[in-house]
Amino acid sequence: RSESWLMLLCALFCSAFVPAQFTQECRSDTYPPPSSSEVEWFDVSLDEAPIIRWRHVVARRQSQIRDLLLQFKNFIRQLTGSSVYFNLVARSLTLIAPTVPQPYQDEMVGISTVTGIPLGEILLYNIFYEATNLCTSVLAEDSKGVLYHARNLDFGLFFGWDKAKKTWLVTEYLRPTIVNIRFKKSGQTVFMSTHFAGYVGILTALKPGRFSLTVNSRNSLDGSSTAGIIEWILGKRDAIWMGFLTRRVMETADSYAQAKQMLTGTKMLAPAYFILGGNSTMQGCVITRSRDAAIDVWERSAAANHTWYLLQTNYDHWKPPFVLDDRRTPGNKCMMAKGQARMGFKEIFNVLSSIPVLNKLTTYTALMRVDTGEYHSYRQTCKDPCPIW
Length: 389
Description:
It contains 11 helices and 15 strands. By secondary structure, it is α+β, with helices and mostly antiparallel strands. The strands form 3 sheets. It has an 8-stranded mixed β-sheet, with helices on one face. The protein has a 5-stranded antiparallel β-sheet with strand order 13-2-3-14-15. Strand 10 (272-277) and strand 11 (284-289) form a beta hairpin. It is globular, with a radius of gyration of 20 Å. The protein starts with a helix and ends in a 10-residue tail after the last strand.
């Protein structure tokens, strides 16, 4: 809704930051991306004790995680004029860390131990992604019935602007932390996902042969992520963290139908959009969530004149997107221009690399195919001229 904090902040900042109108061009020359942009793979064993299962991942990225948290701390200090507020929040979160459900509590303790970063800061790092990420997700089926699922993850809005480099500071510090994870049990891959190292929840994932899942944030007056987090801190804990729910779905659900059931009815700390892909023709939906339950399930069979794909950004699909953040219209334009017959990783990547779907906040693009288990993710950078969101 136009009254949401994100829209208000965008309105306040637009006069200072929004540049001249950008040409909305559907790219055709961005795939394959350079090998240097490919995200590194790690294995995480679910058979190992939670307190040690992330040690090798965060050991390789501990300096990047530290740099990111330092940047966020500097941002809060510049905003408030003091480090007191950040330190107070971090100390408070340390006190409530024992209330985090297992195995995520022990995983965060283990990450803190390996990196030497205080537990409260690791918990704060995991809360980041409950709050906001501005994303574009696409489910598409080609003319042969092959299903594809892809997404851009945009993050860092208003967390510090570098005037010299014309970029969001937190976004720049996030890219080096990106990793791909193969979650394994008894030596077999259960599912694959893309993470910011140190974050234990799930935002982008594929369960080979079963289903795929991406999460886009939703800002709404019917329950905000901030309210949910505050309730948790104050002792009301009848809802699950969004990232923990998606992690549970990827670990335990064995089918598209089961995943859909879990994602529609479980009470959460934060509202969200769940973009869920299946393994057979016409399977795919966008689940619009309040904190309590689903308020809408947009099935591919109800996608008006383009039933072969769904495209979701950060606004309810039955309402117009926010005027200062319309990635939906150019995204749909490019999808329709590419067409179902040509659809595949190449064309979806080109769509997600087209301005303004690609913008200064974009950290990575992920490409997934359930039937073959193919999963690729690439760090993304939008070179000038480029919109700031």
